[in-house]
Amino acid sequence: MPNNEETSKEWLLNEDxxxxxxxxxxxxxIANLIHVTCPKCGHTLRxx
Length: 48
Prior knowledge:
It contains 3 helices and 2 strands; from the N terminus they run H-H-H-E-E. By secondary structure, the protein is mainly alpha-helical. The protein has a two-stranded antiparallel ribbon. Strand 1 and strand 2 form a beta hairpin. The longest helix has 10 residues, at 2-11. 0% of the residues are buried.
């Protein structure tokens, strides 16, 4: 059951990893406009 493995892996992510995972799915053009900021380190994630 390969699908269950992926689901389990996602559930094992801690909050910081979940944040990074979701940020990686954001359209970079939008991220560049809203200047997404990491709540942990304060680093602003922008498209170069």
